[in-house]
Design goal:
126 residues; alpha+beta; OB fold (Dihydrolipoamide Acetyltransferase, E2P); seven-stranded mixed sheet; two-stranded antiparallel sheet; 2 helices; 28% strand; Staphylococal_nuclease_OB-fold; TNase-like domain-containing protein; SNase_OB-fold_sf
Length: 126
């Protein structure tokens, strides 16, 4: 449940996501940020590279970012999931954990080599 967002007060979600473009209602921004019914969610406990710049890892970082984003899209579209919220970050995004079958999607992406633990994880893509 997301406080202040009663439309999201359900236990399990099944919705169709696309990659974000101009429409930012229900879509994947990148491997750790989504929009769900008009609410911007920053997924906690993990971090993925940014697909829009190559801060430290060049083309390999951007390629990994696209893989992480595609995998998150696949996970969300292929499975029912739950959302737990934990306040907002400094950018006004709702901090959240998404679980599929009880597992944090961040743990799945980390195990698959597409993400790092956040905080205190090494930016292996640099």
């Amino acid at each position: 449940m997301i406080p202040g967002y009663p439309a999201m007060a359900v236990d399990e979600w099944r919705v169709s996501f696309g990659m974000c473009g101009r429409d930012r209602h229900t879509c994947v921004v990148d491997g750790d940020t989504i929009w769900l019914q008009g609410v911007n969610l920053r997924l906690e406990s993990y971090d993925t590279p940014e697909p829009y710049n190559d801060i430290c890892g060049g083309r390999a970082e951007v390629a990994l970012a696209h893989k992480a984003s595609a995998r998150l899209l696949q996970l969300l579209n292929g499975n029912p999931f739950t959302v737990e919220t934990h306040g907002e970050d400094r950018y006004g995004r709702v901090l959240a954990t998404i679980r599929i079958g009880g597992r944090d999607v961040g743990d799945i992406l980390i195990e698959e080599g597409l993400a790092r633990r956040w905080p205190n994880g090494r930016e292996f893509w640099c």
